[in-house]
Amino acid sequence: MIIDQIKITRAAALVTPYIALLYYIEVVYLVFILLILFGKTVSVIAGMIMSILLAYHIISLNYFKDRNRKIQLFLMDIHFAYSLAFIINLVMHDISIHTYDIPLLTVRSVLIAFEIPLIYYLSDIKISSQYK
User: Counting CB atoms within 10 angstroms of each CB, which of 36, 46, 60, 86 has the fewest?
Assistant: First the structure.
């Protein structure tokens, strides 16, 4: 039982950067919204900045940086609340689902399924001691 717990906690730290890769879908979605609201220039610049920051964040998560573990916890907490509200709103109300909503709904559902346990495990003292 203890060995399984150690494997799970170790796997949570190793899986986190791969789950963070799915945030690129959110970046694409945000760039699309910025394109509609503000035009090409703002959309492209914001997309480039967010992509570079996310790439740096994912690389730092691979190197077990404690600052990025805390940033990831914050991102997952905010993303979980936003995605859950988005999914509930889409399902509960009689809103027509467009074809571009289905992949976004799927990605957000997958992220929610992983974010709940990752928030728990990344907050654990055993995992946080692995980060420097």
Answer: 36
**């404690």: which residue's tokens?**
66
The Cα–Cα gap between 46 and 52 comes to 10
Taking CA atoms, 85 is separated from 31, 50, 82, 105, in Å, by: 20, 23, 5, 11
Q: Tell me: pLDDT of 51 over 80.
A: yes
Nearest CA among 46, 58, 48, 108 for reference residue 82: 108
CB-based contact 20:72 (threshold 8 Å) = yes
CA distances (Å), origin 5, targets 91, 120, 121: 35, 13, 11
Vertex 43, ends 72 and 70: CA angle to 5°?
10
Residue 126 CA to residue 84 CA, distance in Å, equals 28
Torsion of CA 29, 35, 37, 42, to 10 degrees: 110
- Find the range with the poorest average confidence among 33-42, 56-65, 96-105: 96-105
